[in-house]
Specification:
The complex is a heterodimer of chains A (about 170) and B (about 110).
Chain A: E1 7-8, E2 25-29, E3 34-38, H1 39-45, E4 48-52, H2 59-71, H3 73-76, E5 80-85, H4 89-99, E6 104-107, H5 112-117, E7 120-122, E8 130-132, E9 135-139, E10 145-150, E11 153-154, H6 160-169
Parallel strand pairs in A: 4-5, 5-6
Antiparallel strand pairs in A: 1-11, 2-3, 2-6, 4-9, 7-8, 9-10
Chain B: E1 12-16, H1 21-32, E2 37-41, H2 50-56, E3 63-66, E4 71-74, H3 76-87
Parallel strand pairs in B: 1-2
Antiparallel strand pairs in B: 1-3, 3-4
The chains are: A alpha+beta (about 170), B alpha+beta (about 110).
C-alpha cells in the first residue's frame, strides 16, 4: 500500500452514457474574451468533450490539460474541447494563456452545472466551497452522452486511454 | 472556440469590460431601448484586447457590432447617439411617421476605458 491517502467519494447518481446531458448556459472563456454560451449551442456545431476539473491553480487542472495537450487530442479529434471549473473567467484566461491550450473553459463559480450532472465534490477544509468531481463527458450533436467517466476517488485522473478510444468512436 | 453562429445570437454584440462605467452607459441605453444583445467581456489590460483591435481598430471599450445595420462603432458617446438615432423614437429603424428627430446634442467625446 502507498503511504498516502486517496479518499473514496460517496456514491452518486450522476448523468451516465446514454442519458441526455442537461443543458446549461455559462460564461465560456476563450483566449480573447468570454460570453454566455449554452452547451446546446456547442453541440449544435458538433460533438463536445466536456472536461470537469479542479479549480484553476490546483495541480490537477494543470495536469489534465497538459496530458490532453501531450496526446494531441485537440488536433486529432473533431470534438470541441471544453473545460469547466468553478474558477472565474479571469483565472480561466490565465490558464489558457499559461498552458497555450486551444480550448475554451466554462466558468461556474456556483457549481450549478456539477449539481445538474450529479457530480458535486464538497471540498474538505474549504468551508462553503464545492466544485465538480473530476469527470469527462463526450456528448454528441443530440446532446446524448456517448461516454462518461466520473471520479469515485479524490484525487483521481481520467483514464486517458479509455477516453481516447471513446473519442475515436465519436 | 466559442459558438459564433446560431440562429439565436442577437444581432448586436457589445464588447465590454466588467465594471467599466462607459460600458454600463451603453448597456443601460440598450436596455432602455429594449434591444437584445450579446455581451463579450474583454480583459482589463489593453494589450490583451486583440479582439476589439481586430474588430474595431481600437483597444478601448465599449465597442458594438450591429449586424442589422453593418455598423461597428467605438466610444460610448457615439454609440449612445447611434443607438438613439437608429432605434430610438423616430430613429431610422423605428416604424413611426415621426421622421428623423435624432439630434447629436448629447454626444460626449473621449473618456472610454
Amino acid at each position: 500500500m502507498p503511504d498516502f491517502e486517496v479518499v473514496d467519494l460517496p456514491e452518486t447518481d450522476y448523468v451516465e452514457a446514454g442519458d441526455q446531458a442537461p443543458d446549461f448556459e455559462r460564461p465560456l472563456v476563450n483566449d480573447e474574451f468570454w460570453e454566455d454560451v449554452s452547451l446546446s449551442e456547442l453541440t449544435d456545431d458538433g460533438p463536445v468533450a466536456l472536461i470537469f476539473h479542479s479549480m484553476d491553480g490546483a495541480f490537477p487542472a494543470t495536469y489534465v490539460w497538459s496530458e490532453i495537450d501531450d496526446r494531441g487530442w485537440i488536433d486529432e479529434f473533431d470534438a470541441q474541447f471544453v473545460g469547466l471549473s468553478i474558477s472565474s473567467p479571469y483565472e480561466h484566461g490565465d490558464l489558457l494563456e499559461d498552458s497555450g491550450i486551444d480550448a475554451s473553459l466554462f466558468s461556474d463559480p456556483a457549481n450549478g452545472v456539477a449539481e445538474a450532472f450529479g457530480i458535486v465534490n464538497d471540498l474538505d477544509g474549504m468551508a462553503g466551497v464545492s466544485e465538480p468531481r473530476p469527470a469527462v463527458y463526450l456528448i454528441d450533436e443530440d446532446r446524448t452522452v456517448q461516454y462518461a467517466w466520473v471520479a469515485d476517488e479524490w484525487p483521481e485522473f481520467p483514464p486517458y486511454d479509455h477516453v481516447e478510444d471513446a473519442l475515436a468512436d465519436l | 472556440m466559442p459558438a459564433e453562429s446560431t440562429d439565436e445570437q442577437p444581432p448586436i454584440t457589445l464588447y465590454r469590460l466588467q465594471a467599466c462605467p462607459y460600458c454600463e452607459r451603453v448597456v443601460r441605453r440598450l436596455q432602455e431601448l429594449d434591444l437584445d444583445f450579446q455581451s463579450r467581456f474583454v480583459e482589463p489590460m489593453h494589450g490583451d484586447r486583440d479582439v476589439v483591435k481586430r474588430v474595431a481598430g481600437v483597444r478601448t471599450v465599449p465597442v458594438i457590432v450591429d449586424e442589422t445595420t453593418g455598423v461597428t462603432m467605438a466610444e460610448s458617446g457615439n454609440i449612445v447617439s447611434y443607438l438613439d438615432g437608429t432605434y430610438g423614437e423616430g430613429g431610422d429603424r423605428v416604424l413611426t411617421d415621426g421622421g428623423h428627430t435624432h439630434s447629436d446634442g448629447g454626444r460626449a467625446a473621449g473618456g472610454d476605458a
